């Protein structure tokens, strides 16, 4: 992990890898993130930058690699997946978060974008399946409950590598 982190640093900063922050633009060059539809959210969630520039320290980078490793538990993966999918960072997945999630998965082009009616129906179906307390949002425990019924979740989510 340290070798991968330091290889992404600009040439003059490699010797200070433990104390320097890796710019988001460099993080996004990782093959695992390059084509990932959630690449910007992943950087946001794992970055501890006070400037909110989504840069990462070595510790942030290590946290990201740990969560996406095969040895991370489903509970840890689901917590981070929830945070990645919570676009407005309010602690719940509401209709807008779900719409953003669907748009990330289907793409933004005209031919792949869902119609308004299709999007509304899909979000309604997701909420019917997941919103146990019927408050119109999905909280972390509801998300984890749905995930617990998906045996492939730990292998494929968060959808990174």
UniProtKB/TrEMBL annotation:
Pfam families: EF-hand_7. SMART domains: EFh. Residues 73-108, 118-153 form the EF-hand domain. PROSITE patterns: EF_HAND_1, EF_HAND_2. This is CIB1 protein. It comes from the Eukaryota. It comes from Casuarius casuarius (Southern cassowary). PANTHER family: CALCIUM AND INTEGRIN BINDING FAMILY MEMBER 1 (PTHR45791:SF1), CALCIUM AND INTEGRIN BINDING FAMILY MEMBER 2 (PTHR45791). Keywords: Calcium, Magnesium, Metal-binding, Repeat. The keyword Transmembrane helix does not apply. InterPro entries: CIBP (IPR051433), EF-hand-dom_pair (IPR011992), EF_Hand_1_Ca_BS (IPR018247), EF_hand_dom (IPR002048). GO terms for molecular function: calcium ion binding; magnesium ion binding.
């Amino acid at each position: 992990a340290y070798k991968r982190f330091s290889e992404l640093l600009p040439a003059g900063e490699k010797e200070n890898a433990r104390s320097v922050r890796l710019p988001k633009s460099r993080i996004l060059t990782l093959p695992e993130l390059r084509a990932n539809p959630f690449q910007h959210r992943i950087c946001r969630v794992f970055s501890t930058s006070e400037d909110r520039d989504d840069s990462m320290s070595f510790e942030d980078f290590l946290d990201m690699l740990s969560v996406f490793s095969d040895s991370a538990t489903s509970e840890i993966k689901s917590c981070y997946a929830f945070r990645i999918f919570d676009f407005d960072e309010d602690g719940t997945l509401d209709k807008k978060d779900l719409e953003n999630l669907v748009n990330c998965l289907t793409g933004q082009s005209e031919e792949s974008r869902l119609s308004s009616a299709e999007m509304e129906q899909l979000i309604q179906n997701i909420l019917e399946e997941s919103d146990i307390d019927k408050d119109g949002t999905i909280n972390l425990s509801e998300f984890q409950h749905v995930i617990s019924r998906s045996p492939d979740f730990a292998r494929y989510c968060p959808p990174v590598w």
